[in-house]
Design goal:
Aspartate Aminotransferase, domain 1, 4 helices, single chain, 114 residues, alpha+beta
Length: 114
């Protein structure tokens, strides 16, 4: 999946927005103001995962701990094009749901997240 494809998937999720807090070469996808996926300048992608997924993905070498965000259980894929689109889309949807679950009830209601 390329940068445009990542954007299409992420922005299709409920309440998702895009901004560029680290400059125009980085895309940060957020829900309720909290980031769930970030595309880097060189095309790699980082996203939030569960504790179990972090262990599995990093131990088997499919992903690496995301720079600066690993302690919050984020992984980085230097080559997202090497992954199946459906698999990446599922990871992004899960990242979105993990972050959305941390929002207040009011924020979730305002974003139409239930």
């Amino acid at each position: 999946m390329d940068r445009a494809g990542i954007g299409k998937v992420c922005l299709s999720l409920p309440g998702a927005t895009l901004d560029h807090p680290f400059g125009e070469h980085h895309d940060a996808y957020r829900v309720g103001g909290k980031m769930f996926v970030m595309v880097g300048e060189q095309g790699g992608v980082s996203f939030k995962v569960s504790d179990i997924a972090f262990a599995v993905l990093t131990e088997d070498g499919r992903a690496r701990p995301a720079p600066y965000l690993a302690r919050a259980k984020w992984v980085n894929l230097p080559e997202p094009a090497a992954w199946l689109d459906d698999e990446l889309a599922e990871h992004f949807a899960i990242a979105h749901s993990i972050i959305a679950a941390k929002l207040t009830k009011k924020q979730r209601a305002e974003l139409g997240l239930g």
